[in-house]
Amino acid sequence: MIYVAICDDETKIGADLERALIDIFGKLSVAYEIDIFFSGEELCKAMQSGAVYDLIFLDIEFAKHEINGVEVGRKIRDNYNNFMVAIVYMSRVKDYALELFDIQPFNFLVKPMKYEKVDEVVRKYLKVSGMWSETFTYKIGHDIFKAQIKDIVYLESRNKKLKLHLLSGRADEFYGSIKEMYQEQLQRLDFLFIHTSYIVNYDYITALKFNQVFIKDAAAPLPISKHRANEVRQRYYEIMKRRRM
Q: What is the C-alpha separation between 71 and 68, in angstroms, rounded?
């Protein structure tokens, strides 16, 4: 379970960020709780009362409040002696490097925030904290291998064997069920099960037609099964919309 706080006086920013986090944690199968605060005073009061967070998305400028995000960060570090919580600052202004140095923020996001940037910060935090591993695991003979999810272009099934096509051009073959691999490791991520023989990484799709998917640097497109066509298109546009936040 990851405990997250969002602290921002712009309600739309907070709502958009909450929706993005719900989607990201759901996609990564990570249990979560999110609390939302509209001022630094509210967040400080909650933490003084015993609230504990793993990750805080903290605005720097609060228009109608005396305390700003920099002061909140200092209170968390100095007054509450909390050096474990990861603080991700948010601002429309980039020039805060020196002020934030002694607070040791985990990251900094520039408003308006893009889904990809939020996703990147969350994945980085989960990896650093050991809560989530961004790898695909498979077995060749008696040996276990791991590939970075970001390096997988597509997975192919042929004659009871699977072939993992990687960004480097390498292709590893091993025995397994493509359906099980999808359900156990890839379904929670942005992969499309386009055909009984193909699972494709959304990141490497350059064009989508009704019965074909075009892959970056691939010699030929991959087929989409007729019975999967509507589902594939729906999932493709859902991922596209979500990433645009």
A: 5
The first and second tokens of residue 58, run together, are 């903290």
- With contact defined as beta carbons under 8 Å apart, do 221 and 213 qualify? yes
- Domain residue limits at 78: 2-129
105 and 12 fall within a common domain: yes
HEC per residue, 179-243? HHHHHHHHCCCCEEEEECCEEEEHHHEEEECCCEEEECCCCCCEECCHHHHHHHHHHHHHHHHHH
Whose tokens are 């023989």? That residue is 197
pLDDT computed for residue 152 by the predictor? 95
Condensed to tens digits (0 to 9), the pLDDT of residues 31-41 reads 899 999 999 99
Whole-number Å distance between alpha carbons of 96 and 73: 13
Span 150-181, pLDDT tens digits: 899 999 999 889 999 999 999 999 999 999 99
Q: Looking at the structure, tell me whether residues 50 and 99 fall in a common domain.
A: yes
Whole-angstrom distance, CA of residue 164 vs CA of residue 150: 13
In a shared domain, residues 121 and 163? no
CA-to-CA separations, 116 to 55, 112, 113, 140, 203, in angstroms, rounded = 18, 12, 9, 33, 11
Alpha-carbon distance of 155 to 191, in angstroms, equals 10
**CA distances from residue 161 to 15, 118, 156, 158, 197 in whole angstroms, order as listed:** 45, 36, 8, 5, 10
Same domain for 125 and 10: yes
The pLDDT-based confidence of 128 (bands split at 50, 70, 90) is confident
Which residues contact residue 185 at a Cβ distance below 8 angstroms, ignoring those fewer than 6 apart? Answer: 136, 137
